[in-house]
Write a structure and sequence with these properties.
- By secondary structure, the protein is of the alpha+beta class.
- The chain has two domains: 95 residues, Pleckstrin-homology domain (PH domain)/Phosphotyrosine-binding domain (PTB) (PH-domain like), CATH 2.30.29.30; 44 residues.
- Helices cover 45% and strands 31% of the residues.
- It starts with a helix and ends with a helix.
């Protein structure tokens, strides 16, 4: 089966949320504040900024290569950069779908999607954009498959 034909089976694709990028940005702001207001050593601000830039790059790679594909008969979760993890869960093996959201998650529409499979196995996808939409698509496909 060709890759293009498989892509046509995707009903919905979810990605990580942009809020992941706020940590490194906050770190740069702290480095700038230390440099300008706390009279910290000059090299400390640059060191913190360098660490933040590396952290931002790693987050960007994670953001770029992590996704959740909802297909007609399965859910595929892919994450990781160097150590790639791909989890393929058939729709008929899903027992429940849980959403975990903080207050900020509810406001900015991100959270964790927890899929419990038969046998009690649990798969987590953290910082997922629009997890309620993902759950709705999965539940609709699960119930359509039962009929």
């Amino acid at each position: 089966m060709s890759e293009k034909k498989t892509d046509h089976d995707v009903v919905y694709q979810a990605r990580l949320h942009w809020i992941l990028f706020l940590g490194p940005i906050a770190m740069v702001v702290v480095a700038w504040a230390l440099d300008h207001y706390a009279h910290a050593p000059y090299q400390l601000g640059w060191a913190i900024t360098a660490i933040a830039v590396i952290w931002e790059f790693v987050i960007w790679l994670t953001y770029r290569y992590s996704y959740l594909n909802i297909k007609k008969n399965r859910v595929v979760m892919c994450s990781g950069i160097i150590v790639r993890q791909t989890i393929d869960i058939p729709m008929n093996k899903i027992e429940s779908i849980d959403i975990r959201q903080s207050i900020l998650g509810s406001i900015f529409q991100y959270g964790s999607l927890v899929i419990t499979g038969t046998g009690g196995s649990r798969q987590f996808f953290n910082f997922l954009e629009k997890p309620l939409t993902c759950r709705r698509y999965i539940e609709n496909l699960m119930y359509d498959g039962d009929q």
